[in-house]
Fold this sequence. Notes:
Elements: H1 2-69, H2 72-133, H3 135-154, E1 156-162, H4 168-176, E2 180-187, H5 190-195, E3 204-208, H6 216-225, E4 229-233, H7 242-245, E5 248-251, H8 257-268
Parallel strand pairs: 1-2, 1-3, 3-4, 4-5
Amino acid sequence: MKALIVVFASVLFCNTPVTAQSQQAATVPKEQLVVLERENRFLREDLNRTQADLAKLQKNHDELSKALDGYKPILEYWQWLLGVFGFLSLSALITAGWLWFKKIPKAVKDMLDRVPGLAQEQYDAQIKQVFTDRRAELLAVLKEYDADQEVKKKHRVVLLTHRDGIDDYHHTQLIKHGFSVYPYTKVDTLAAAVNAGDIKPDDIIVINNEGKHWLPEEVQKFIHNNPQCCFYIGRGEISLDSEAISRFAAANFRPQFIGNLMNILRYRN
């Protein structure tokens, strides 16, 4: 009896894995089938939507074709018109190019050949008219210019500058306007400049006191003791008697320098 029970248990134990394996083998194909059916359904839905879109596009195409049939004669007319216009434009371009390279340069050359003579004649006529209409004014300007040149030749400018001062500006302006300049630099006192003996009777003495190195009293004394025309550059009040004032001028600002200097020279001559 025990032997029969053992045999029955062995048979039962051996059949159990086979049954599980059979169930597993039957389960796998069923799951794949479900997946395939689902994908097939999705594909059919996509196909139906695509066919519907294609039907709409075909309908729109048919409607557009019918709508354009009415404009076909107009489009053909414009096509013909643009073709004619393009031909005419090309012809005009070719004609313009021919004129540019053949006719126009010759015409321009002929005109330019005549221009110098015409321009010179017109210029001479205008100059002659100006001299005729404004003869008196031009002669007065030339007379004043000649007088200024004579003044500049007659008088030398002695430019007095303190030892600690720099006077490139006034020296440059005097040279620029045609003056003969004697730069008397490194002057400690104005009295030393008087005693130096380098100042001539016709010289114009320019006292540059922009640096305020000399007191107004010292400047006044220098002008009273020298018979030459004196020009003062700087600030401060310079008190002079009537005789000294007649040969004295000043400039408080640099732009006044040349104009005021020429005025005193014209007055003295």
